[in-house]
Every structure is written in C-alpha cells, then in structure tokens.
TrEMBL record:
This is dTTP/UTP pyrophosphatase. It catalyses: dTTP + H2O = dTMP + diphosphate + H(+); UTP + H2O = UMP + diphosphate + H(+). Its cofactor is a divalent metal cation. Its EC number is 3.6.1.9. InterPro entries: ITPase-like_fam, Maf-like. GO terms for biological process: nucleotide metabolic process. The active site is at D72. One of its GO terms (cellular component) is cytoplasm. Nucleoside triphosphate pyrophosphatase that hydrolyzes dTTP and UTP. May have a dual role in cell division arrest and in preventing the incorporation of modified nucleotides into cellular nucleic acids. It comes from Congregibacter litoralis KT71. The record marks R16, T73, Q155 as: Important for substrate specificity. It comes from the Bacteria. Belongs to the Maf family. YhdE subfamily. NCBIfam families: maf (TIGR00172).
Amino acid sequence: MSTPEPTLVLGSASPRRTELLQQLGLAFTVCPADIDETPFSDEAPRDYVERMAREKSAALDLKESTVLLTADTSVVLEEQSLGKPENKDHARAMLTALSGRSHEVLTAVCARDPARSEVIVVRTVVEFGELSGRLIDDYLATDEPWDKAGAYALQGLGGSFVRRVEGSVSNVIGLPLFELRELLQRFGLVPVLGKDAA
C-alpha cells in the first residue's frame, strides 16, 4: 500500500504567492500567519527574511501528514531592507532611491512537516533604469505599489522600470519556483506541471 501524498498548506495571504504556487500543479490550502514583522536592530536582511519565514511557520498549527510552506521577501538596497511603503511619500522615496541602480531581492522559504524543517534563501539582483519624477508620480497614482516590498511589482506596471534581472524572476514576485519545486520534492510533494491545483 502506497503512502499518501502529504497535504500542502501555504501560510501566506499573498495572492502573488498563491498564483505562483498554483503553477506547480499542487493542491493546497491557504492559512495566513499573523506575526510581528519588526526587524531587530542591526539585523542583516538575509537573517531577517529567514527569521520571518521560520516565525510564520512556527505561528501556525501543523497537522500530521502536512507540509507547511511559509515565505518572506525583502528588497535590499545597500544592506538595508526597504519593506513595504507606509504612505505615498515613503513609496516615492523608495523608488527614487532605486532609480538607476541595482538592488537585491531576498526570499526565504520555509518548508516544515512533523519530522523536520528546511529553509532556503534565494537572491536575485534587479537593475532599474532611471525613473523621472513624473514617471514615479504616475506609478504612485495606480494601486500597484502598495503592499509590495520596495514599492513596485515586477509582474505589473513596475516591470517597465527593470533594465536587467540576474537570477530567479519569480523570486522577485514572491516565490523562487525552481528552488521551491526542488524543496517540495524533498518533502514528498511532486509537482505535476500543467495540472490545475484544486
């Protein structure tokens, strides 16, 4: 008798992560984690995203035969995590700082079942072209920058700001699909590409 495939739970309210995970053709349920996401003083960005992924996982109940998946993404400029914009002025300052420069996007992904847990951290380098004040103001007049690390969405209108990407594109959106597929396989979950997730 074959062992049943474990149940997958995504511990995130992000619609972008839901859409990305659906691309792997795995059935899953969504159960967001609610934690304090305040960085520690002098906490390195890589340490921060890894801690957030682990703490989101720890905040959720884990049932038998379940794999819990949590993640955290940060946009990093000069070793400083930019986070999500608090208001229009904050978003403008972020985009102005990113203009004409390269920055990092770090995503930590934690997979946990009753026997073990594993965290991976994936790094992508994104280079912006020069952004005029008018372009930034036009972008801020849309709904897109809000609730996005670094105040932009690569998969949306903000994609036109990006001159070059080095590394995983899906990592910038919220989940590094190549590394995620390999991680889930190590937990007994085999993606079926082309199959719609139930």
